[in-house]
Structure formats: C-alpha cells, structure tokens
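agent: user wants the structure for Oxidoreductase from Streptomyces antimycoticus. delegating to structure tool.
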Amino acid sequence: MTTAEPLRIGILGAARISALSLVGPARAGGHRLVAVAARTRGRADAFAAEHGVERVLGSYAEVIDDPEVEVVYNPLANSLHGPWNLAALAAGKHVLSEKPSASNTEEATEVRDAAAKAGTVFMEGFHYLFHPVTRRLHELLGSGELGELRHVETMVAMPAPPGSDPRWSLPLAGGALMDLGCYSLHAQRTLAPWAGGLPHLVTARGGARQGAPDVDEWLDAELAFPNGATGSARCHMAYGDVRMSLRVVGSRGEATAVNFVQPHLDDRVLMRTAAGDRTEELGKRSSYTYQLEAYAAHLRHGAPLPLDAEDALTTMSLIDECYRTAGFPPRPRTTAPASG
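agent: tool returned. relaying tokens verbatim.
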C-alpha cells in the first residue's frame, strides 16, 4: 500500500534489526529514509550507503531536530528507548519505537504523558499484531468457532546470544522478559475482548543469568482473566532452539500459531475442533510491512491504530509486576540521552 504522501523517517542508530523492521517495509511503502545517525560516523555512513538513507547526521539529537524528519524510528538498546522517545516527543515528532517503550513503569508513564502533551503519534512496535496470523486467531475467537476462551499459552524462546550482548546487561535494561517475554505478555493482553477484560498476574518465577544475578535468563508468568480463563506466558533467552508459539484454547476447540512473532518464517495456524483438524497458511509477507502500513495509514488517513503510549504503559506495568513477583528488580532507567 502506498500512501499519497510518503512518511519522512529519521533513524536512530545503525542497528541490524532496522533492515528487517524498517528499511524493507519503508521501501515497500514508498517512504523516505531521510536521515540516520549512529554511535560513530563510520557506522552511519555504511548504513546509509547500504540502505539508501538520504543523509547522515552527527548525532541522534540532530536527527530528531531535523525539520524534514516527521517520524523518528528508535531501535536502540532498551535503556535508550525511553530517553530518546521522550526527546523525540518533546520535539513534536511522531515516534515508532521498538519494544519495550521504556525501561520501567515510571519511564513509560513519562512517555505516555509526553505523547499526550505533544499531540503526536507514539507506537510501540509489536509488529506481530498486524499480521494475518494474529488477526486470524482473533477472528476465530470473535466468530465463536473456538467457543469461550479457556486458556492461553505463549512461549517465546531462543538460543543464548553471546555473553557480551546488551540483552544480558542490566544497565542496558536487558533480560529475557524485556527482549522476548514482552511478546508473550502483550499477546495475552490483546485477548481481553474475549476474556471479559485484561488479565492479572497470579504468580511469576524466573532464573537469573549466571554471573548476572539481576538479569533474567528465563521467566514464566501465570495469568488469570476476568471470565475465568487462565494464561501461561513463558520466555527463555538460553533455550535449545527457537520457540515462538501462541496457543488459544476455547470451549469448542483450539488454535495454535506456530510462530506468531516471526510469521514470515512460519505462517501456519493449526486448528482442532469437533469438525476435525486443519492447517491454514496465512502468508509470509513481513509483519513489519503490515505494521508500517498501518502506522502510515493512521498518520495520513486517520485509520484506526491499536497501539499507543497508553497500551505501552500497561504492558510495562505488567512487566515490572512480573519482575518483582519473580524476585528481580525492574530495569533501571538511563536518566539522560547519550550524545549518540
């Protein structure tokens, strides 16, 4: 889908994820990559040359202040999401931030308030929500084919990244729940319309990374919904293989998205009802492309957008509650932006 006027996007950092999460979708939608800055000029130059960014600037602040940039994309380390989201909102920019929106509930509250004050559009990048795989699970609940919601299982796991990876750093707001488990929790929260409301935490437990006592290697949370349905949200950042499944069990049947986080790798939804078993394949077009299309349609045409700063705050509040219940501290915040 091409909008009448392309988005004018500024990129903070030269993260590898940006090629998948932003560059490809922007090209598909005909949007402009106006500016980029990185920790070093060389990294920014290389990123711009490879991905067709129009110009390289000297700092993140310069990207935010560029009058031609209307949307700031923030894929930085977790600890830098909050500070630079706040800086971009204070400059009157729209913001598309990788999850999580901030390091903890206090900071997410400030992001929510800053977005309201700015009157601009803030969105936390839970891209999976826009893909037909997730939409199909919601359709199955909405149509009644699965009956009343009884149980939800989310499992998001991966082999361990290197020990030097920022995801193992407490000062950089790392941990399995921040990197992976936020998908597990958010996917369960989106089922509120078919469960009588949002889930609440029943209990949580987790295990620390060896040598990093406050950084969770894995965390399991048990949830309960107002209608009596239960939820199990698991994440593991040192698992034997990749698991990113979402299983919805109803009174008349069940459905499982084999890989709801990366449907471009596996787009199957497996269904089991009284009528028998069947498999639906919903397409491997990138969930990030669907996400940017929805974001652009909202900015240009006022189309509905299911994610905002309030939703991000609700998720972060649940993350912090899980951490405290499992015996971990909430992630610390970075109080001021690095020069970038």
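agent: one observation worth passing along. The domain at 8-127+290-307 is CATH 3.40.50.720 (Rossmann fold).
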